[in-house]
Structure formats: C-alpha cells, structure tokens
C-alpha cells in the first residue's frame, strides 16, 4: 500500500509561510555581507546558542531524519549508538581538546588548519576530497528529497529539484554562512516542534513504552533474534549473529565510535565551520556542547518513531508500512507513513514542512562548507592568489551557484543502496576514517611532519579501498558493496564491514604517519607550531567564566548523562 | 550588525500557532479521528503560540545599548 499525503490549503499556507521566512532571512542579511569573512565565517560574530543549534542542524540532513527512523525500525534501539557512543563523546572531545586549535589558529577552514600545521599538499588533498564529498552529499540530500516528494505528494521530480535548489541558492547567495546558520536554527525548531506531536501520538497509539517493548518482541523473534533485541542497546552486542546490525561491541565502539564518529564530528568542516563562526573562543568551545544536549535526546525524535512504526506494522500484519522492492517493509517510509497516519490537515503542513526543512538544512550545510573550501583552499591557493577581498566574496557567491548546479548533477547517482545511512557510511569510510588519525597526531604530537601526514592520509584512504575490495557482507554479490578484488573477509552485515574498514583505514594512517614522520625532518619550528599543537600552546584562559559554564565541566556532565542513558537502555 | 534571530523564530511560530489554533477551533471534528480523537491543531497551536510569543518577548525585552 503506497502512502499518499494529501495536502490541504492550510498545509500549503504553512509551507509557503515557512519559505517566506527562509528567504526573508537571506534578504535581511544581504546588507551585512561586506567582505569575504562575513560571507564565509559570519565575521566570527554569532552567539554560542545559535552556532550550537546550527552545528546540530547542519547534520540533520537526509541521513538523520529518514535514515535514523529507518534504522530504528530495522535495528531497534541499537541505533542509539550513533548518538550515545558515536556523536556525543566526539562532540565533547571537539569542544574540550580540538576547538582551541581550530579557533585559536585563526584558520578559516579545516583544510587551512592542515596547511598551517603540516604543508600544502596535505591541505590540497583534504580540500579537494572534501569539496567533492560535500557536493556529492548535497546531491544525495536533494535527490532523496525530490524522490520522496514525488512518491508522497506526486510532485514532479525535476520541479522539486529545481525549486528546492533555487531556494537554498537564494538564501546562501544573499546571506552566506550567516544565512545558512540562521536558517539551520529555524529548521532545528521546525523539526523538534513538527515531529514531537508525531512521537506523542505514535507512542499513545502503541500503548506507551512498556506496550511498545512488548510489541517489539515478536518483531525480534520472527527474525530469529532474542526477545529484547529491539529494546536493548548493548545486551546483544557480544556476537554479530545476535543482532540485526550484524556487528559486535568492538566494531561498535572502535569503528563507529572512535574512528567514524570522531572523524566526522571533529574534522568535518561542514559541522566545524559552525563553531568557527562563533563570536569568541569560549563561544566556539561551547558550540558542540550546546549541540550535545539536544543531540542526546534526538533518538526520541528520530529513532523511536521507527520502533513504533515497525511494532505497529508487525501487529497489523504489514498494514502500517509500505512494502519495499525486496519484500521487507520500506524502512525509509517510517516518518512519511506516520505523518500520513496521524496528522490531520494543519499539523500535517507543519510536519511536512519540517521534513522538507531537514533535507534543505543538510543541503545548505554542504553548500556553505563547499563554497568556503573552494574559495579559500582551492581558488585562492592554487588558481587566483592575491586578489582583492571583494573578488573572493564574488567568487564565494558564484561558487554557491556552481556548487548547487553540480549537486543537481550528483542527484542523478544516488539510489543504489536501500538504506541511505549505509551509503553515507561507505563514503565517510574512505575519506574520513583516516582523517582523525592525522588530526590526532597533528594536534598532540609535535614531531609529526607534513610528509608523514600526507602519506598517512593517502595510505589510510588506500587501505580503506583495498579492505573494501577484499571484504564483503554475507549474501551480497561482490561489486559496489565490496569484494571487488576478491571477497576474502566475510562480514555478517555491510555495516560491520564498514566499521572494520574504518578501523583498518585509521590504523594504517596512524602507523604510516608515525613511521614517515620519524624518517623525515621537521619543516616547522616550535614557534611556527604555537597555537597548533597541544604541547606548544598555552592552555586557553577561562575568560572569567563561572566554573559551571566552563567547557570541561559541561563536557563531564554531558558524558555522565550519556553513560546514564546507555545504562538505562542497556 | 546581524539582527536577533529570536525575532523571526518568534514571529514565525506565533503565526503558525495562531493559524493552527484558529483552524483547530473551526475545523470539522471528524478530521481528528486519525489523531486518536485529539484536536491536535488546537492544542499544539496553542503550544506553538506560547513558544513564539516567549521568543518575541525575550527578543524585544532588552533594548539595544
């Protein structure tokens, strides 16, 4: 049974009003865009609560709302590891240990930090791979949104692509990063306020938390897993065959937690850029911590609906979710199904707008990160150095246009995998997995050199590719999903394969960087590395803040609550 | 200087809240069968209105300087 969403006049009114505000913010910010620093860095003037919510919201793209709900249905509460093992510890680490170097070095982007810390080629490698990856991600968001709108409300695919791309283009073209950040905060509130009633109604319908647990037992046992598999996050991680994710605790903690999540949250310019726009060092350090608060609770908003939907689907004999091509329920339809099922006209407009907002937030975040890296790290560094600042501002605006056009092209090639999450994990695996080793060594070991970092990164990325070529998930034909050299290592699931690939890539990068650094001479003196390396940088002053708002204290509280959540849902 | 972001947030959610509240009062109660018999437009509209007005209140409370 396909889902149809019928939008009434009032729903269109809400949608239209939202886009008027989105575009209005762009127009209102136009006059503040005087130089390139305003356009790319918001003039480093944004208060922490705004950058914090934008930090969170920039990641609220396709993979978050649709993908996490899908994973909630497919894997149950284990999906929360993406938050409570993955994101939160990484965000705390970024705030306490890494932000002082990003913000304090006055680098304008993450690749530029690599240039200051290591050398030109390391920056170039990172900048170019990042630029390609962001535009690709932006295209995935756009494609996913248009495909969804086509399915749900029968809008024309290409009309959706052009209209959504045009709206994102206008507000970034006019207001740069500030406009993207302001709109991300708007989108944050839309998503929270648009989806909370959905969770409330779903939970009420299923009969509350204990009834939900009860109803998820047959979901687990029918697939051959222990009764509590969908509602216990750690209990079944001893062996990959005991849980639907097909991973064990080691892959979860090291692969997802330490390598992938730290790699993403601590080094991906898409999110780090938001913190760099903060108005002071302390605001920059508070940014990830402010984001961590709501992030901890996001499983309620995005994973719980998936668990509710699969329970109701199972109870009703498959009447709640539409069937996918493979005969399983179409997990990506969790949120749309619930919107169609529970929301009357009026609230439906709000929920539907929130859904569109989430995709556009993801796209806008990628576009702003792209135009900055393109303009500062590629165009200014290699193509046209020493031009006037207004020239780079002009370039940034046109890079936005270019980036969005390329995104539209990338939207073509995004429908191979049935779960968007798995695909993004694969892309992050190749490029981001080795990255965190480079930053860790760069920030905490002053002996690491430019040659070491560069060949470590290249080696780590190659190791990821080779591993991918040698490994395969059980039951998957060798090809795009791995095993294209020879399927030598077999994994229980693609996710397990990706987590181990990340571990291999990280370890290779770490060892190669150390090895080559020891063999090559240092090219930067201690004085040049001041502010870039931990042991050579004075500890950040607390800026006369009371102890209860200092990053270390807040970070410990955040971690303590996270541990508590893990124990409650063990 | 950039404007206070709480202004557009407050304004937008006040408008959403007002629209949903009014719609909740005048709409046919049968449309709420799917929301388990709860007039969610009315209740959530009031909630959004309160949130929006609070945002506006804090944005406008302190004059510049």
In short:
The complex is a heterodimer of chains A (570) and B (65). With 570 residues, chain A is mainly alpha-helical.
Structure, described:
The complex is a heterodimer of chains A (570) and B (65). Chain A is mainly alpha-helical and 570 residues long. Helix content of chain A is 70%, strand content 1%. Chain A has helices spanning 9-29, 36-41, 48-57, 62-75, 81-104, 110-117, 120-153, 157-206, 209-222, 249-267, 269-276, 281-302, 304-315, 334-342, 347-383, 389-410, 420-432, 435-444, 450-470, 494-519, 551-568, and strands spanning 471-473, 489-491. A two-stranded parallel ribbon of chain A has the order 1-2. In chain A, helix 11 packs across helix 15 and helix 13 (304-315) packs across helix 14. The model of chain A has no long low-confidence stretch (mean pLDDT 88). By secondary structure, chain B is mostly helical. Chain B has 2 helices and no strands. In chain B, helix 1 (6-26) runs antiparallel to helix 2 (40-61). Chain B starts with 5 loop residues before the first helix and ends with a helix. The model of chain B has no long low-confidence stretch (mean pLDDT 90).
């Amino acid at each position: 049974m396909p889902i149809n969403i019928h939008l009434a006049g009032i729903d269109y009114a809400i949608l239209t009003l939202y886009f008027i505000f989105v575009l209005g913010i762009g127009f209102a910010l136009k006059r503040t865009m005087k130089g390139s620093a305003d356009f790319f860095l918001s003039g480093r003037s944004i208060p922490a609560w705004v950058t914090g919510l934008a930090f969170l919201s920039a990641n609220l793209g396709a993979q978050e709302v649709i993908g996490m709900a899908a994973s909630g249905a497919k894997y149950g509460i284990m999906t929360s590891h993406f938050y409570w093992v993955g994101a939160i510890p990484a965000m705390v680490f970024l705030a306490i240990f890494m932000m002082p170097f990003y913000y304090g070095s006055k680098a304008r982007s993450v690749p530029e930090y690599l240039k200051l810390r290591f050398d030109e080629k390391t920056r170039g490698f990172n900048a170019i791979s990042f630029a390609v990856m962001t535009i690709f991600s932006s295209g995935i968001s756009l494609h996913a949104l248009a495909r969804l709108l086509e399915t749900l409300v029968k809008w024309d695919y290409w009309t959706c692509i052009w209209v959504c791309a045009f709206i994102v283009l206008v507000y970034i073209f006019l207001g740069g990063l500030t406009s993207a950040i302001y709109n991300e905060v708007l989108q944050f509130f839309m998503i929270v306020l648009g989806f909370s009633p959905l969770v409330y109604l779903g939970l009420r319908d299923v009969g509350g938390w204990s009834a939900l647990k009860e109803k998820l037992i047959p979901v687990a046992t029918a697939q051959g897993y222990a009764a509590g598999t969908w509602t216990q996050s750690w209990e079944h991680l001893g062996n990959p065959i005991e849980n639907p994710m097909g991973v064990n605790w080691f892959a979860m903690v090291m692969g997802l937690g330490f390598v992938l999540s730290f790699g993403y949250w601590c080094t991906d310019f898409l999110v780090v850029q938001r913190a760099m726009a903060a108005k002071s060092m302390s605001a920059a350090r508070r940014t990830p911590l402010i984001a961590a608060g709501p992030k901890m609770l996001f499983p309620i908003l995005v994973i719980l609906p998936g668990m509710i939907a699969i329970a109701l689907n199972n109870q009703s004999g498959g009447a709640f979710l539409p069937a996918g091509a493979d005969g399983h329920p179409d997990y990506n339809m969790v949120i749309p199904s619930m919107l169609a099922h529970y929301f009357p006209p009026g609230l439906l407009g709000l929920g539907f707008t929130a859904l569109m907002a989430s995709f556009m937030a993801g796209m806008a975040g990628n576009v702003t990160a792209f135009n900055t890296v393109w303009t500062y790290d590629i165009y200014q560094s290699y193509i046209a150095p020493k031009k006037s600042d207004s020239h780079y501002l002009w370039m940034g605006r046109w890079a936005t246009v270019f980036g969005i056009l390329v995104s539209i092209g990338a939207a073509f090639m995004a429908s191979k995998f049935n779960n968007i999450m798995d695909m993004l994990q694969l892309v992050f695996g190749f490029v981001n997995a080795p990255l965190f080793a480079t930053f860790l060594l760069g920030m905490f070991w002053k002996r690491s050199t430019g040659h070491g970092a560069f060949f470590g990164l290249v080696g780590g990325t190659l190791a990821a590719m080779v591993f991918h070529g040698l490994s395969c998930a059980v039951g998957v034909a060798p090809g795009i999903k791995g095993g294209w050299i020879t399927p030598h290592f077999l994994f229980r699931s693609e996710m397990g394969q990706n987590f181990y690939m990340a571990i291999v890539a990280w370890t290779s990068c770490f060892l190669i960087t150390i090895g080559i650094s020891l063999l090559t001479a240092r090219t930067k003196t201690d004085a040049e590395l001041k502010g870039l390396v931990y042991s050579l940088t004075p500890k950040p002053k607390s800026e006369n803040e009371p102890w209860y708002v200092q990053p270390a204290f807040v970070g410990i509280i955040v971690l303590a609550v996270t541990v508590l959540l893990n124990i409650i849902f063990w | 200087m950039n404007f206070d972001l709480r202004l557009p947030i407050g304004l937008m959610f006040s408008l959403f809240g007002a629209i949903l509240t009014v719609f909740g009062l005048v709409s046919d109660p049968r449309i709420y069968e799917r929301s388990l018999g709860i007039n969610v437009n009315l209740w959530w509209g009031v909630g959004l209105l309160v949130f929006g007005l609070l945002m506006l209140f804090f944005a406008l409370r302190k004059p510049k300087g």
